[in-house]
């Protein structure tokens, strides 16, 4: 039985030079941090290995955790809509998360699983998987969806509220950060939040050419 990494990192579980299929298989047994203990399964990235665009979110949600696929819940449906309106084909996008296991707390009745944001140490522990994905896909552009993804890719001091929609450079990749689609769903004025999100994705479309 595998035990949690003593280094608090997924790095010992990441096979060097592996393709995405091998990385996905290896990630299923990752014990780089404690989040695997309560999650149903690892939710690895999905999409073509030669994708020009990689979208990185925070972590899988309840639906993703149960199905084992990224961005298939309510936020994923909104992302689908926005990608289509921005003329970005989701089938050609590689979708993943900074953290591969669902972190949650239970409601007062102990039945409903409520999303809980990962802390910095959990993101740091999991980021070797993201680095391996980006190294394999070699996209033309990385889109960070939300603060957790942006900090994982662009550094802990990065603020999405101040620099969203701008072209950045990190780790040898062109990067644009925007909000997470789940924040659009929670926004007091959802229509306005969606327009801003769509505007950022249209910047992505322009950059890809």
UniProtKB/TrEMBL annotation:
<dbReference type="GO" id="GO:0097506">
    <property type="term" value="F:deaminated base DNA N-glycosylase activity"/>
</dbReference>
<keyword id="KW-0004">4Fe-4S</keyword>
<protein>
    <recommendedName>
        <fullName>Type-4 uracil-DNA glycosylase</fullName>
    </recommendedName>
</protein>
<keyword id="KW-0378">Hydrolase</keyword>
<keyword id="KW-0411">Iron-sulfur</keyword>
<keyword id="KW-0227">DNA damage</keyword>
<keyword id="KW-0479">Metal-binding</keyword>
<dbReference type="Pfam" id="PF03167">
    <property type="entry name" value="UDG"/>
</dbReference>
<dbReference type="GO" id="GO:0006281">
    <property type="term" value="P:DNA repair"/>
</dbReference>
<dbReference type="GO" id="GO:0051539">
    <property type="term" value="F:4 iron, 4 sulfur cluster binding"/>
</dbReference>
<dbReference type="InterPro" id="IPR051536">
    <property type="entry name" value="UDG_Type-4/5"/>
</dbReference>
<dbReference type="InterPro" id="IPR005122">
    <property type="entry name" value="Uracil-DNA_glycosylase-like"/>
</dbReference>
<keyword id="KW-0234">DNA repair</keyword>
<dbReference type="InterPro" id="IPR036895">
    <property type="entry name" value="Uracil-DNA_glycosylase-like_sf"/>
</dbReference>
<feature type="domain" description="Uracil-DNA glycosylase-like">
    <location>
        <begin position="44"/>
        <end position="202"/>
    </location>
</feature>
<comment type="similarity">
    <text>Belongs to the uracil-DNA glycosylase (UDG) superfamily. Type 4 (UDGa) family.</text>
</comment>
<dbReference type="InterPro" id="IPR005273">
    <property type="entry name" value="Ura-DNA_glyco_family4"/>
</dbReference>
<dbReference type="GO" id="GO:0046872">
    <property type="term" value="F:metal ion binding"/>
</dbReference>
<keyword id="KW-0408">Iron</keyword>
